[in-house]
Amino acid sequence: MTVRILIADDHKILREGLRSLLEKQSTFGVVAEAEDGLTAFEGVKKHKPDIAILDIGMPGLNGIEVTRKIRSEMAETKVIALSMHADRRFVMGVLEAGANGYLLKDSAFEELVIAVTAVAKGKMYLSPSIAETVIKSTLEKSDPKRQGSSVLLSGREREVLQMIAEGKSTKEIAFKLFVSTKTVETHRKQIMDKLNIRTVAGLTKYAIREGLTSLGS
């Protein structure tokens, strides 16, 4: 049986390279590509792939939020996060969102094949170099001082915050999320109230620090 795969990354060369390499495997088939998070999620809904390989640092909607939405609405699709970051915030963020695997971009292609094969069989896969990060984070999870304040925000608020940090206007955010500008303004106020941050610069710094946007990479 062919494993049906969606690849989402904002770098076209990387997407094409991954597609070419994956399709050399007789048991893999790439059914769709996406260049941003919103397109990735729409692609998952349309094509219903077995596995979505998601770059964490995508514009519009990052890989963590896409993973969370997939788990909520398309749970049969498994997710492998692909990132250049071994930082604990990114690793634990996407795993807690429901990812089935985490692969660093500097991994050899053979490791991607192993990861896809394992996840397709219902197993988890982590790059060996980040396994220690996951173990430490799990042990420290009960310490409230270690938990990021981003847990205060709802999923939609995190989406809005990412787009604010990326410099999108209220109208642009409303258009992308299919809501009114008034709704976006309400979300912005709620975000500022919850975080006690009153400037766009402050929100941007927060979003970068919490791994909600790739601007800091």
Tally of structural domains? 2
The main sheet orders its strands as: 2-1-3-4-5-6
Mean pLDDT figure: 87
Helical amount among residues, as a percent range? 40-55%
Q: Give the name of the CATH superfamily of the largest domain.
A: Response regulator
Q: What's the CATH topology label of the largest domain?
A: Rossmann fold
- Number of alpha- plus pi-helical segments: 10
Termini separation comes to 38 Å
Largest sheet: 6 strands, parallel
Structural class: alpha/beta
Strand proportion, as a percent range, falls in: 5-15%
The succession of helices and strands, N to C, reads EHEHEHEHEHEHHHHH
Shape: globular
CATH architecture of the largest domain: 3-Layer(aba) Sandwich
User: How many strands in all?
Assistant: 6
- CATH class of the largest domain equals Alpha Beta
**C-alpha Rg (nearest Å):** 17 Å
Low-confidence stretches: none
